[in-house]
Design brief:
The structure is a single chain. It contains 24 helices and 60 strands. Strands 1, 2, 3, 4, 5, 6, 7, 8 and 9 form a nine-stranded mixed β-sheet that branches. Strands 28, 30, 31, 32, 33, 34, 35, 36 and 37 form a nine-stranded mixed β-sheet that branches. With 1311 residues, it is α+β, with helices and mostly antiparallel strands. Helix content is 16%, strand content 30%. Belongs to the CTC1 family. InterPro entries: CTC1, CTC1-like.
């Protein structure tokens, strides 16, 4: 500790009273600060403060925002400071203290001086030494001089309201940001605090006296530990500090710091340390006399000579010259694992622009020079030497351990004369910026290099180094190592940016221009902020090391880095803190512990910035001319993707689905013009839309935690915003079975967002389809479909797994801490029943009220071995069973929270049923606590039946004895096609795989008007699926209808047109028309095998001969054939009521009783044709708009014909055979009837056509086909007898004119 040599202050300060002998510290002698008053004492106060603060302070370098109106601020009382006076009591105002103490009491001054003496002895004097009266007197003189400099002390010669504070006291007790201004008056503080503005809070003013030694040592005396940082040090500790304009002569001396701010670490950061901001020049306790200049002028080289000297081989040996010049540029302070360094450039005022010489400073004791250098000032660097940078061709000047940094005084230097004749070294190779023949792509832009001074107005992301400057520009400090500035930079701080890059229109969602300094430039602090920093939460401070990895390891350009930081913020908002902790998501990525945040971004970053690019070289980036760095060139970034929240994705999908909903698109003309109101509303009642990520701009990436719902029994993706149901396949035709995926983080770029639209409407006719007022209710079911093989699966840490995967954590069991005691048993699942609401038997003695049905399902299978207990981390051997030959069948009932396992259980897999807790005898055996009564077992045909408890878990068992997945063809039972289409009632439960062709919502039929409301004749809505059954022994796929009714509604997820589904144990039924259809039963199980294709390609119908429909092989249900219309059997045209389908002559409904709500009529038509293609005959039924095509009428002719039928309401013609007279419902001589009879017998109808059709009845083997019959034909005088096949009955899908005459059948028709 440096001591004063004399008791008198050399600055001319008034000497303080003689100190009394040291006594015990007085802790209660504390006085409030003195308010600015009126009188002679206040004259010149503001000028004195400004003069004391110096020119740089007077220039407004460190002034900022709103302040209290007095020096005294109310604050909570704390314990007395160690070594100082006690703090002021809370709530005491300055006015009351002045009234009570109009003049300082001698006892108060005495107590303050005693406390000061004790503090100085304990804090500033060497440990174990006697009290230093001379040092104590110097400290008191320094404090008094600074206190009196404000000129408004109200007659108090000592700052009795101020108490001394040590470094340890600040670090231990001061938990809130504060500032102290000994040399400022109240008005000066108020003016400074007003700069905080309306949105900022100024730092509260405390009355503390801080003294310490200014040093660049962090605590020990090792020179190598110096890293260029500044510290305030006393006997109690060391505290980092920031100072704007450092004088190197201050290092190692004792100072009083009159104006300073202290920012403690965040409350959550118990291991962190606060730092000091020294707002003005420190006041030396013992001013040192200025040392005289050198006796002889110092020989120096100027930059131009020093630059030429680098190329002379012989002149550099054994020479350590001095270099003088004006500071042109100073680079960033670069720290690496080995050493730190920075580069300064000196130029000459007379040299041409750009002529300068660079000097590398890497001696640890000289790194603090970086804080003392100011561009534009002139300096002298002594004892320099020349080195060659390893791995490069550069020869540069560098400092030696004996080098010094001195201000340049022309009278103290002389130019060193050197003879530069001799051999020259080869010039450093100029860096190749680009080859002459190559041209840069037009999309590449160049940044602008400039210097900028501005004030920070906002913090965009402190860990990522993103700030707002002057309210208009973005500032990115991530391309420099700005660790020391991270604590200082906040709104209100003034920065000078030297050689900073300006990038405009970087894209990627960033709209404002961006300033970004590289290692070539410097970030210089030019003014502190008066604002109190915002309370930074723990999660807001996470991710700094990860963001550094993006810059220094992944080598991201600025546009991509800005997008990556925003994407990580989006992910944090989606997943934190419920799914992941912020420090887990944004942790530093290492080979053994990868960062989840970086893993989620890696697929995108690997495409835009492939790994393995060359790493940044600090020397090359700083020294190379012309300048090259990652910020020099850039390309505007198109936002590659987005990570929407599940709630946003759900809402956006719902909005897009309803925006695209158009009933006219679902029912295009001319089909819709012939539909009744009931048919129209039934057609539009259900529709679906599939949205792909590529349809959004930018493309969307799905991220969430996979969870199993305890209430709905489905899988869900969850994030902070909510949940979204999902249907997942492990891969094609393979369901998800492994419960270890539950709770994992899922990321996928390939998925389908499915929106099922349900609409209740009352459209009268097709003319009102564009009127939304007829839509009574609309609902949407939104869910996601994707393959697990296309997704990235990341495990979530165990402490968060429980809360992240349960929709209702309170409903899930909580397992005890410590080693878990578990027992389990293996079983092979053979069948799973439907998930539906069921009734269960009430045990004896329970509540006699009828229980409500609850969601549940059952599975049947077989036990594999006995019960096993956990032995450490492995399962022990199964317990022996008494009778190994006893039936091992088991029925497991899942209800309550255990329904969450529904989507993970599938036939053919082996599972382990795990029960936590102490071993329970016969837990999985007959008669155990979870068994169901014997009557239920007999009905189920099982030896044991268990109710799976809520706390039990399931694990997929895999190993050499249990393959990971069974063969799909063996695991899924299938009914043969013959048994499926037969009329055998014994095979009532069938299983098959099929492709869904269509899905229709069948509304209940309206009750007759004579039926009583609420009667027994009420029908419920149902869903009809038309499927094409897959059969290995049949090329054509027969079509079948499947009906889903209550309690299986709403249908399971994934039943969409185009999807392949396996149905197990459907109930087969036969209609009155001998058609076969199926219905869902409680035992029905379905498994989606594949999703609908993303792009629908309509395959053409097979072109066949009609005789192929009569062959023994399976005929296609839909096909096309080239044939000839032989005759017309019947024709019917009519107008019916759109509401009740009654006949409407003259547009009036003929229904008796109550009138229909609307008087709207629609036209309907049907025609039956006899066609043949030379191989067989068929009767084809055409309806509605196909009738116009069959009659060969154009749209206008068809419209006129229908309008002519509106009057009678109905016209029907019946032809008994070719050439026979028609039977008509109207008069034969009517012109309309004559026209239709003539038209139906003309060659415009009886012509060759290409007919697309489907079988009128679905394929069935309920009734045998009619055998061929003998029929007699007369050909002139010759009578022929031949076998004629029965006429095939077809329904017309379309009629087209043949393109070529050869497109007719096998034989042309001969007349």
């Amino acid at each position: 500790m440096e001591r004063c040599l004399g008791a008198t202050n050399q600055a001319g300060c008034v000497r303080a009273p003689e100190l009394p002998p040291p006594r015990a510290r007085a802790r209660d002698a504390r006085q409030e600060d003195i308010a600015e008053g009126s009188g002679a004492a206040g004259v010149g106060g503001a000028a004195a403060v400004a003069a004391h603060r110096g020119p740089e302070d007077a220039g407004g370098r460190s002034r900022s925002a709103a302040a209290p109106t007095d020096d005294v601020t109310e604050r909570p009382s704390r314990e007395p400071w160690r070594g100082g006076c006690s703090r002021a009591l809370p709530g005491r105002s300055l006015g009351r203290i002045m009234e009570a103490n109009p003049a300082p009491a001698p006892d108060s001054e005495q107590a303050w001086l005693e406390a000061a003496q004790t503090f100085i002895h304990e804090t500033l004097c060497p440990a174990g030494s006697e009290p230093d009266v001379q040092l104590t007197q110097s400290v008191i003189d320094c404090v008094k001089t600074t206190w009196l400099s404000q000129g408004k002390n109200q007659g108090f010669p000592l700052p009795l309201s101020y108490s001394f504070v040590s470094v340890q006291d600040l670090k231990t007790h001061q938990n809130l940001p504060c500032c102290s201004h000994l040399s400022w008056s109240s008005s000066a503080y108020e003016a400074w605090a007003q700069e905080a503005g309306p949105n900022g809070t100024p730092l509260p003013r405390e009355q503390l006296l801080l003294l310490g030694t200014l040093t660049d040592l962090s605590g020990d005396l090792e020179q190598e530990s110096r890293k260029g940082d500044l510290y305030v040090k006393d006997n109690t500790g060391v505290l980092t500090c920031e100072l704007i304009d450092l004088d190197l002569s201050w290092l190692g001396h004792l100072f009083l710091f009159p104006n300073w701010s202290y920012l403690p670490p965040a409350r959550w950061n118990s291991s962190g340390e606060g730092h000091l901001e020294l707002l003005s020049a420190p006041v030396p306790v013992c001013p040192s006399t200025t040392s005289p200049g050198p006796p002889t002028p110092l020989p120096v080289l100027y930059p131009e000579t020093a630059s030429r000297l680098l190329r002379h081989r012989g002149k550099l040996r054994g020479v350590q010259p001095n270099l003088a010049g004006k500071l042109v540029r100073v680079s960033a302070l670069v720290r690496s694992q080995k050493k730190a360094h920075f580069v300064l450039s000196l130029g000459s005022g007379s040299s041409p622009a750009g002529s300068h010489v660079s000097v590398v400073v890497q001696i640890p004791a000289q790194l603090v020079w970086h804080r003392a250098l100011w561009a534009g000032r002139s300096y002298v660097l002594t004892a320099l030497r020349v080195v060659r940078i390893r791995g490069h061709c550069y020869r540069v000047w560098t400092t030696s351990p004996s080098s010094h940094l001195l201000p340049l005084k022309p009278e103290c230097v002389r130019e060193l004369e050197l003879e530069l004749d001799g051999p020259l070294l080869e010039a450093d190779p100029a860096p190749s910026s680009s080859q002459d023949g190559d041209r840069e792509p037009a999309l590449i832009r160049h940044s602008t290099l400039l210097s900028y001074t501005g004030k920070v107005t906002g913090v965009l992301s402190q860990p990522a180094g993103l700030y707002e400057v002057d309210g208009q520009l973005a500032l990115c400090l991530a391309y420099q190592q700005f660790h020391s500035l991270r604590k200082v930079v906040r709104p209100g701080v003034s920065l000078e940016l030297q050689d900073v890059h300006l990038l405009q229109s970087v894209g990627g969602g960033t709209r404002r221009p961006v300033l970004a300094p590289c290692l070539h430039g410097a970030i210089l602090l030019r003014g502190f902020s008066c604002q109190k920093p915002e309370n930074q939460s723990f999660y807001q401070a996470q991710g700094a090391s990860l963001f550094e990895q993006l810059i220094w390891e992944r080598q991201l350009g600025l546009p991509l880095y800005l997008w990556a930081t925003r994407a990580l913020e989006e992910l944090a908002c989606k997943l934190c803190p419920h799914m992941l902790r912020h420090h887990q998501l944004l942790q530093h990525s290492s080979p053994g512990n990868p960062s989840p945040g970086l893993q989620l971004l890696a697929p995108v970053l690997d495409v835009l910035a492939p790994p393995g690019s060359t790493r940044r070289n600090a020397h090359k980036e700083i020294l190379e001319e012309p300048h090259h760095c990652p910020l020099q060139k850039y390309t505007r970034l198109q936002t590659p993707c987005s990570f929407p929240t599940l709630a946003t994705l759900k809402e956006e999908g719902r909005c897009r689905a309803w925006a695209a909903f158009d009933p006219k698109t679902l029912l295009p003309l001319p089909e819709s013009s012939h539909l009744t109101s009931c048919q129209l509303n039934q057609r539009v009642s259900w529709s679906w839309l599939s949205l792909l990520p590529a349809t959004s701009h930018p493309a969307q990436i799905l991220i969430g935690v996979l969870a199993a719902s305890s209430h709905k029994g489905c899988l869900q993706l969850r994030d902070k915003s909510g949940s979204l149901p999902c249907l997942i396949l492990a891969k094609h035709c393979q369901p998800i079975t492994d419960s270890r995926f539950i709770g994992c983080l899922v990321r996928t770029e390939k998925f389908q967002l499915v929106i099922e639209r349900n609409v209740r409407s009352n459209f009268p006719s097709y003319k009102e389809l564009n009127m939304t007022g007829f839509i009574q209710k609309q609902q949407a079911r939104v869910y996601i479909q994707f393959f697990l093989a296309d997704a990235l699966i990341l495990p979530v840490p165990r402490p968060l797994l429980h809360s992240a995967t349960s929709l209702t954590p309170q409903a899930e069991p909580t397992l005890p801490d410590g080693p878990h005691v578990e027992q389990s048993r293996l079983f092979l699942l053979s069948h799973k029943e439907a998930l539906m609401k069921r009734n269960f038997c009430v045990p004896p003695g329970a509540n006699p009220e009828v229980p409500k049905p609850i969601l549940s399902f059952c599975v049947s299978g077989s036990w594999l071995g006995g019960t096993q207990r956990k032995d450490g981390t492995a399962w022990g051997p199964p317990e022996p069973k008494g009778d190994e030959n006893k039936d091992q069948k088991v029925l497991l009932v899942f209800r309550g929270s255990s329904v969450r396992w529904f989507e993970l259980l599938h036939p053919g897999y082996v599972y382990r049923l795990v029960a936590p807790g102490p071993p329970t005898p016969l837990l999985f055996e007959e008669g155990g606590p979870s068994c169901i009564p014997q009557r239920a077992l007999e009905l189920a045909g099982c030896a044991s039946c268990l109710t799976v408890q809520d706390e039990w878990t399931l694990e997929l068992e895999s190993g050499p004895d249990f393959p990971a997945g069974p063969d799909t063809s063996k695991a899924l039972p299938k009914t043969s096609l013959d048994d499926l289409l037969s009329g055998n009632s014994s095979d009532s439960l069938v299983s098959f795989s099929a492709e869904i062709l269509s899905r229709t919502l069948c509304e209940p039929l309206p009750a007759p008007f004579w039926a009583k409301p609420g009667g027994s004749r009420t029908s419920r809505a149902s869903v009809k699926l038309t499927v094409a059954v897959e059969a290995a022994d049949c090329q054509s796929r027969p079509h079948l209808d499947i009906y889903i009714k209550e309690p299986h509604l709403p249908p399971p997820l994934g039943l969409l047109p185009g999807a392949r589904v396996h149905f197990s144990q459907l109930e087969k039924k036969i209609s009155r028309c001998h058609n076969i259809y199926c219905c869902f039963r409680p035992s029905t199980y379905l498994q989606v095998l594949s999703f609908p294709p993303e792009t629908t390609i309509s395959a053409p119908l097979p072109h066949i001969f009609l005789a192929e429909l009569l062959q023994g092989g399976r005929a296609p249900f839909q096909a096309s054939a080239s044939c000839h219309i032989v005759s017309v059997f019947s024709l019917q045209l009519l107008w019916v009521c759109a509401h009740c389908t009654s006949l409407c002559p003259q547009g009036r409904c003929t229904r008796q009783g109550s009138t229909c709500p609307t008087q709207t009529s629609v036209s309907q038509a049907s025609i039956r044709l006899l066609v043949e293609d030379g191989t067989a005959e068929a009767v084809v039924t055409c309806r509605n708009h196909h009738v116009a095509t069959a009659l060969g009428l154009c749209p206008s002719e068809w419209t006129s014909l229908l309008e002519s039928v509106r009057g009678p309401g109905k016209v029907a013609l019946q032809f008994t055979g070719p050439g026979a007279q028609p039977e008509s419902s109207a008069k034969v001589d009517e012109p309309l009837t004559l026209f239709l009879r003539t038209l139906c017998t003309s060659f415009s109808v009886l012509r060759p056509v290409v007919l697309s059709f489907e079988l009128e009845r679905k394929p069935t083997m309920v009734t045998p086909l009619e055998p061929p019959r003998l029929q007699r034909f007369q050909c002139g005088e010759l009578t022929l007898l031949t076998r004629v096949n029965p006429k095939i009955r077809l329904s017309c899908l379309s009629i087209q004119e043949p393109k070529h005459p050869s497109s007719l059948g096998a034989f042309s028709l001969s007349c």
